[in-house]
Amino acid sequence: MEQDINIKITDREGVTHEIQAPTDMAMNLMEVVRSYELAPEGTIGVCGGMAMCASCQCYVLSDTQLPEMQDDEEAMLSEAFYVKDNSRLGCQIQMTPDMDGLEVELAPES
Questions:
Q1: Distance separating alpha carbons of residues 85 and 35, to the nearest angstrom
Q2: What is the CATH classification number for the domain harbouring 11?
Q3: Which listed residue, of 3, 22, 53, 105, carries a Cα 20 to 30 Å from 82's Cα?
Q4: Which residue range forms the structural domain that includes residue 98?
Q5: What is the DSSP letter of 64?
Q6: What pTM value is reported for the model?
């Protein structure tokens, strides 16, 4: 059964987009941002979602239960700019039914 979830993404201009993300396509947050063109081409997901760049860094604004941060994500964020306590890499957040209601803000482009 296909289930779309509702998430809110605030882009780098400060505009909040309420979008529906599919949970049946194994997409992650970075890919959702790209498919909705919420960030200019070449400014997000530069490494292709391998947690090797921080171009998809976002700040999690909702108290959504996220998957635990893995070592490579933690290491990348330790070297990234504009990191906050609620920073995550969008490529590491899979769109699952549990993510319904997720609210994030894209970090500034570094």
A1: 27
A2: 3.10.20.30
A3: 22
A4: 5-106
A5: -
A6: 0.94
